[in-house]
Design a protein that fits this description.
The chain is α+β, with helices and mostly antiparallel strands and about 140 residues long. It contains five helices and four strands; from the N terminus they run E-H-E-E-H-E-H-H-H. Bound molecules: iron/sulfur cluster (SF4) (2 copies). It comes from Streptomyces triticirhizae.
Amino acid sequence: MIEVVSAERCIACDKCVLACPTNVFDTGADGVPVIARQDDCQTCFMCEAYCPVDALFVAPTTHPAAPGGLDETELAADGRLGSYRAHIGWGRGRTPGARLAVGPELPGAARMVAPSAQEPEPAGTTSTTAPAQAGTARKAPTP
Ligand code: SF4
Ligand code: SF4
């Protein structure tokens, strides 16, 4: 559940306000989001993931922390502010989590062949594969 918005770190970009699927935040007069409807939080971590300056902390709980239970200075000191974003590898200089993910082998994956190694298509047929261009390797989008 969303617990902390660090006014010290926030740059008032509104990304968390827009990312939240349940409209938990209001934008404060100074541009810093206010947790206005904490009970509506679904603990989806999207706000923390999108915050570019690691100003948010979503606790991995479904109920609010006890009053005084979470201290912003302590969270910042031990690296928990924005730690979800860091763990999924979003942000400049980080490795996207999808590149590190380990999962079960996909059925048929062993039969997959790179386009350059495939048999040439018979003359007169139409290719459904986009031509590979030298030096145009795809890059993962940067969040
Ligand atoms: S964790 Fe999800 S539901 Fe909760 S405030 Fe953040 S974006 Fe909204
Ligand atoms: S995403 Fe981060 S920097 Fe942007 S408004 Fe929200 S808390 Fe502030």
